[in-house]
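INPUT
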Amino acid sequence: MSLRNTDVPSPRDGDCRMVREILDRIGDKWSLYVIVTLKNGPVRFNELRRQIDGISQRMLTLTLRGLERDGLVTRTMFPSVPVRVDYDLTEVGRTLLAPVMALVAWADDNRDAIQEARLRYDGG
Amino acid sequence: MSLRNTDVPSPRDGDCRMVREILDRIGDKWSLYVIVTLKNGPVRFNELRRQIDGISQRMLTLTLRGLERDGLVTRTMFPSVPVRVDYDLTEVGRTLLAPVMALVAWADDNRDAIQEARLRYDGG
DNA sequence: CCGAATCCTCTTGGATACTG
DNA sequence: CAGTATCCAAGAGGATTCGG
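OUTPUT
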């Protein structure tokens, strides 16, 4: 999987596009929060809303729909009164946790370095 | 407007914010392309522009400035005529390649599954 | 309790033209 | 060649309201 240098803009720069597809999936404002919040099992709608600080009802709904559409999250409705809806990670969704944790580790290791770099850049 | 007063933000919240910081960094439209394109060594401005299909001059500049600010990319100007500017990954920037590749692997493994899930969801 | 619908604001990013 | 500056369209996302 190496990048070509000088060539026609062939459709085979799909390597990057593939990554962008997944980054578009988890790179929005809330998807990652939802995925991580679901890592220990099913959670109800309003419980998700409480645990994810700052998310609006609308965005939680939209985010869950997107994850459900991509087969990363399941939606289970219990027709009780009042209605109860559980959300959970699918098997595929659960496998996403590993790469995400790699990023967590990187962010943890380099947080200070980035912060200092920003101060240095902004300062001089 | 909250019905109950929530006290201190939970400690786990910081974990997510940290990841969001890095996702905000590489999760924009072009940063990842730049990082991957620089993986084999320094590249000049217009060469980056050629290799990253679809990026505008403005966005390449803004993306490079952001990465430079965070200490992930270096900018080296040669005062020749015409001017020549090389961009390269820093040591820190280079360590980011590993977690990114983990995501690449995940995207590769699950691309079809996601595509099928979408068709299923949209179809019925 | 769960969520759809509407409105509105702010950010992102593309197109274009100009500079050293 | 390597930018900077300006204008503008599209979309993300917050606030609010209504419905089952």
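end of record. Chain A touches chain B through 51 residues (CB under 8 Å).
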